[in-house]
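Forwarding the complex inputs:
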Amino acid sequence: MFKPLDPLLHSQLRLAVMSLLLAVEEAEFTFLKEKTESTAGNLSVQLDKLEKAGYISIEKSFKGKRPLTTCKITQAGVKAFEDYVENLKNYIS
Amino acid sequence: MFKPLDPLLHSQLRLAVMSLLLAVEEAEFTFLKEKTESTAGNLSVQLDKLEKAGYISIEKSFKGKRPLTTCKITQAGVKAFEDYVENLKNYIS
DNA sequence: TAAATAGGTTTACATTATAAACTATTTTAC
DNA sequence: GTAAAATAGTTTATAATGTAAACCTATTTA
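Prediction (whole assembly, four chains):
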């Protein structure tokens, strides 16, 4: 009936990030920050957690002279998101 | 885009409780405990929070000689739940 | 060259979730 | 009758989480 909800996804900011990443090839840190209206500190921490869980991959490079952080959702991330949504339906329908 | 999710509802156990209460006239503590597979302590705390938020009402009485705690969802609770689900859709669709 | 901006990360704090321990009463077993 | 177990919860302590403030490094602007 009520299967446990993946605690990594059951978090407002991480869920928003995953939702955004599902829709695009990849996204920059600043893009995610703007879209989610989060602080950089909070976003940084949550991206770390998602990466450690294997739900996203993070690449650090440079855009001109400035650092650039780019995020991509992984296959495992897509699967986890889908499972989460499937489970969640039992709670909200 | 990503409206904040009511933190009182964005919690696995409280959401499960609200989901159950939406479907019935009223429910006993033990019923909620069994359905949610939670511990009594955790359930007790979460019911308190929902009551203090005005999302449920709690009545204490006796069933025979034993204490009986009965919960009902309030109008405000129904509204909050509906809003939560509506908001959540932006995250998971 | 001082101040502001960009792009983050680290750290500290406050809030939460959760289970363990506890209370009070009742039923069952001896 | 009384010791042990069960019922129905509440309170308390702890661990985990979420969040923003403070910080860092480099770059651009005044």
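Residues 75-92 of chain B form the longest helix (18 residues).
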